Amino acid sequence: MPFTRYACLLFVFALVQVFPAQVAQARTEGGFTKLSNGRNLDAFDTFIRDLGLNNDINRVFRVHDDMIHVSGKQYGYFITKKEYENYHLKLEFKWGVKTYAPRKNRARDSGILFHVEGPDKVWPKSVEFQMIEGRTGEVILVGNGSSFTVDGETKTRTQGGGSSRFARRGQGPWRDEVGYRDPVGEVENPHGEWNLLELISDHGKVTYKVNGQVVIEGSNPVPSRGRILFQSEGAELFFRNIEIRVLD
User: Fold this and answer.
1) Which distant-in-sequence residues (6+ apart) come within 8 Å of 134 by Cβ?
2) Which of 2.30.30.90, 2.60.120.560, 3.40.50.720, 1.20.58.480 would CATH assign to domain 32-246?
3) Which of 1, 24, 47, 214 is the most buried (most CB within 10 A)?
4) d(CA 24, CA 29)
5) Quick one: pLDDT band at residue 161, thresholds 50, 70, 90?
6) Residue 165 near residue 139, CB atoms below 8 Å
7) Whole-prediction pTM value?
8) pLDDT of residue 54
9) CA distance linking residue 194 with residue 211, whole number of Å
10) Terminal alpha carbon distance of the chain
């Protein structure tokens, strides 16, 4: 081995020995772990209505350019393989252009369903961080028995119907049309720009943030733990930098 190459190897080895903490910190800055690696969906399962689990033959979910590209053509989702209870989830998303039936030319729609429990289906019991043009940041209860409390008011989803959502703070009027923006309190960036979403589930307290702004604070979610799901619901969109920090 030439001396110069040997010397370089010794130098690198010495750096790792002297600065191991700094090297580790660079890999786990802030304590977050990446769920999306920009190359594949290894941390997730996929589910497509009428096709089932891990049978995405039409490539509704594709990974390219460090993004997860959701076509929106079919209803379904990609979902974490692991369950979580106390955590800080953060990610970026932006809307694409295309919309599909049954939501053709209606407000672009998706969502993050968290604390998912029960069998895979469209849609499993959970609480939703709603993503829809003009109303991103509201709470929707999904599945019989799901429940949530905001400002002392508790709502529970039942088979008989009843109210199953909480509007975000400052929510204005809404129309179900593609490209709609809230004229009163819009929190999303203009179409085509990335948005930062944060979901914090901390020992019974839940916080939703959109682009750094707190839009919902609630408590006592039912279910209280479970997997985390990202929807395909008739609109093209993109996700990137999906990261999680466990708070236990």
Assistant:
1) 107, 174, 175, 180, 181, 182, 186
2) 2.60.120.560
3) 47
4) 8
5) low
6) yes
7) 0.87
8) 98
9) 9
10) 49
Q: Which residue shows structure tokens 């409390």?
A: 149
What is the residue-wise DSSP string for the chain?
--HHHHHHHHHHHHHHHH-HHHHHHHHSGGG-EES--SS--TTEEEEETTTEET--TT-SEEEETTEEEE--SSSEEEEESS-BSSEEEEEEEEEEEEE-TTSTTSPPEEEEEEEEESS--SS-EEEEEEEETTTTT-EEEESTT-EEEETTEEEE-BTTB---EEPPTT------STT---TTT--SPSTTS-EEEEEEEETTEEEEEETTEEEEEEEEEES-SBEEEEEE-SEEEEEEEEEEEE--
Q: How many residues does the chain have?
A: 248
Q: Write down the residue that tokens 């069998």 correspond to.
A: 119
Amino acid at 14: A
One-letter amino acid for residue 105 of the chain: N
Best CA proximity match to 55, nearest among 69, 42, 45, 44: 45
Contact 215, 137 (CB under 8 A): yes
pLDDT bin (cut points 50, 70, 90) of residue 160 is low
Q: Are 210 and 91 in contact (CB under 8 A)?
A: no
Query: Among residues 208, 179, 183, which one has the least CA distance to residue 196?
Result: 208
Four-residue CA torsion sign, 238, 105, 184, 199: negative
